[in-house]
Amino acid sequence: MMKNKKNQQKKPPFNQYWIFGSVIIAFIILNLFSGSGTEKSNITTPSKFFNFVKDGDVDKIEIVNKREVYVFLTNDALLKDVHRNSSGKSILSIAKLTPNYTFEFGDLQNFENKLSATSREFNQDIEVNYVTKQNIWGDILISMLPFILIIAIWIFIMRRMSSGTGGAGGQIFNIGKSKAKLFDANAKVKVTFQDVAGLEGAKEEVQEIVDFLKNPKKYTALGGKIPKGALLIGSPGTGKTLLAKAVAGEAKVPFFSLSGSDFVEMFVGVGASRVRDLFKRAKEKSPSIIFIDEIDAIGRARGKSNFTGSNDERENTLNQLLTEMDGFGTNTNVIVIAATNRADVLDKALMRAGRFDRQIYVDLPDVRERKKIFEVHLKPLKKASSVDVDFLSKQTPGFSGADIANVCNEAALIAARKNKKSVGKQDFLDAVDRIVGGLEKKNKIITEDEKKAVAYHEAGHATVSWMLEHAAPLVKVTIVPRGRSLGAAWYLPEERLIVRPEQMLDEMCATLGGRAAEKVIFNKISTGALSDLEKVTKQARAMVTVYGLNDKVGNLTYYDSSNGNEYGFTKPYSEQTAETIDKEISAIIEKQYQRAISILKKNKKKLIQLAEVLLSKEVIFKDNLEEIFGKRPFDKKVK
Ligand code: ADP
Ligand code: ZN
């Protein structure tokens, strides 16, 4: 049944439209033509008609559709007063084509009897014709019109829906099918662990999954249960998809890949049926891997912020997913790998034993790992000998694997634009700049005054951070505007797992250094420090309310890991505490601001010197800072 329908749907898509269109047009035409005759003639009643018959006025009649009588008068009768209408005109019919009168009778048999009796009695010879007018089709159409309209609208909506879902390609009955992309073992997945740089811990953990898939008997023989799911947690671009693909590639099994948002559709029940379909397909190809990217699209905690009940569809989808994962036995050999960057919002039911009970953290790479990722992505490039991988990995703190892949590609493009034979160091640096701050806008118009203000602001950051032991060491300062910012100071953040209060405070002080410099030099402040202030305020609030680093508020946290720190309408503390928190936050910030000001006042000469260099060179590096300040006393601590 289903199959037949599906095949029909593969015919050219415009067929229905032509049918509906022509039916409706035909209906309109019919109505116009057939209706014209009746509408123009006068309606009379059977009793009046029989009076006409008695008077000998009737020439002939037509019995139309066994329902209605068209009356044609004799020429003489037309001259009579009775047959003039209210405006005094004779009811002429054009060439006797249209009737002079029409009326409807009840029963045909009765009418015929009465007519023959009357005409015999008064000796009238009336011609009677029986006709069927095409108008009958109009009537049928009228009665069917609502259905036709409903069907037309339905088909229209289905068509819109299924063309909107991409792959389904206009097949309306495919709406409940999953949209998973299948990479077959023998076809596509050629990714192996070799292609995944760094991520040692994560690779070790997924290695186990590869073993399970490769020879499940080894594990089940000892009574162990094969895991059903693994959750990869990490920020975007850290290589979660890559890792899942590598698992499939290593185990040489089919790989079904789709995103959590692919399940969600405006129709109720579609998500759940897609889940069912996905698992059915995966089981047919088992052993296999299902990879669900962005699982938070369906896996968010149920029943939260659900005021309207509008999330029911998502919940149904999630429930179906849980049912499927519980449902398949240990011998199915389908392993679900899901990825998210927000593990904190996921429904706890997802993490329960037998579901995604393995959680694998995929973090942003550190220097060492960045170097390895660079090596992977530099391989296909023709690079100049000047390119130093160590240097590149140090220049890219906070970059994800995807960012690094992007840098390499961008560098190659930049070199090509300059018609170079190989990709040089400067090309990589330009690519890094471009990815960090958006495109350089050298021709952006800023006034001299503005430029000066920016230079002192950035010099302020640089000076303060240079003078503070715990502030991150500076890499580069620029006053070339890029993206939305007018200038920037880049630091090399240490990769710390635990941050001490003095480190946080030093960093805040350096961040406030920009505004402090404006104050010290020009004695006025500007709006240029907005993002600095935002950063500092967030940090201060975190110290007080999250990390418990404030004496007045104490060793407690208002952070709630179970809801991702979304308080909703109620704050978890009293008005009084709220007041204390506000006071403490502004006290922390004010103290660091004053500290930055005093540092800059003490080093005012050097600050001015630095700002002048910055104004002339636009970009300065660590070396330039050393020329002015001398070696940084704390730098030996930084490797
Ligand atoms: P995620 O799924 O975590 O958002 P992806 O796996 O899609 O990230 O990564 C995007 C791209 O970034 C990959 O195709 C790859 O080119 C690159 N990449 C990310 N992490 C790594 C890594 N550890 N090693 C090599 N390349 C990586
Ligand atoms: Zn700033």
Explain what this protein looks like in three dimensions.
Residues 1-13, 35-39, 164-171 and 439-443 have low confidence and may be disordered. α6 (200-214) runs parallel beside α8 (240-251), α13 packs across α15 (401-417) and α18 runs antiparallel to α19. β2 (58-64) and β3 (68-73) form a beta hairpin. This protein has helices at residues 2-9, 15-40, 46-55, 108-121, 135-164, 200-214, 216-220, 240-251, 270-284, 296-299, 312-327, 348-351, 367-378, 389-394, 401-417, 425-437, 448-467, 501-522, 530-546, 575-602, 604-617, 622-629, and strands spanning 42-43, 58-64, 68-73, 101-104, 127-131, 181-183, 229-233, 255-259, 288-293, 334-340, 358-361, 474-478, 488-491, 619-621. With 639 residues, the protein is α/β, with parallel strands linked by helices. The longest helix is centred in the first third of the chain and has 30 residues, at 135-164. The strands form 3 sheets. It has a 6-stranded mixed β-sheet with strand order 6-8-9-10-7-11. The chain has a 5-stranded mixed β-sheet with strand order 1-4-3-2-5, with helices on both faces. It has a 3-stranded antiparallel β-sheet with strand order 13-12-14. It has 22 helices and 14 strands. The chain folds into 4 domains: 36-134, name from scop (3-Layer(aba) Sandwich); 175-302 and 311-362, P-loop containing nucleotide triphosphate hydrolases (Rossmann fold, 3-Layer(aba) Sandwich), CATH 3.40.50; 367-437, Helicase, Ruva Protein, domain 3 (Orthogonal Bundle); 448-637, Up-down Bundle (Methane Monooxygenase Hydroxylase, Chain G, domain 1). Bound molecules: adenosine-5'-diphosphate and zinc ion. Adenosine-5'-diphosphate binds at residues 196-199, 234, 236-242, 339, 373, 376, 401-402, 405.
